Task: structure prediction
Amino acid sequence: MRGDDLKQIVSILSDEKTKLLMKAQEFRTHNLKTHETGADEVERNVFDQSMSLAIELQERDRLALIRIEKALEKIDTGTYGHCECCQCEIDFRRLMIQPFTRMCIDCMMDQESFNDKGPLL
Ligand SMILES: [Zn+2]
Result:
């Protein structure tokens, strides 16, 4: 992979990481505020619903953050952009769309026909 291409990927990953960290921060602040006001029963129900939604989001964000860290680590060690399955170089256009991907399209397809869990990023 060319240095310029790699730089582009790094900036995508860093942007995404910043966004996720800001979101986590916002979530925390919002949470603290809601607790302070002491909502009544109706509000509490709404709060519960949005909480479970937020936790779900958090879980996804947490995973995304781990993937970003892994990708950045790989960039550091020079192994980024190689398929973890067949070691081939992953198509750059694919990396631009899914910068955390660990497999080439062929291996991904193989995996998908293997299990129904959906695409593994
Ligand atoms: Zn592969």
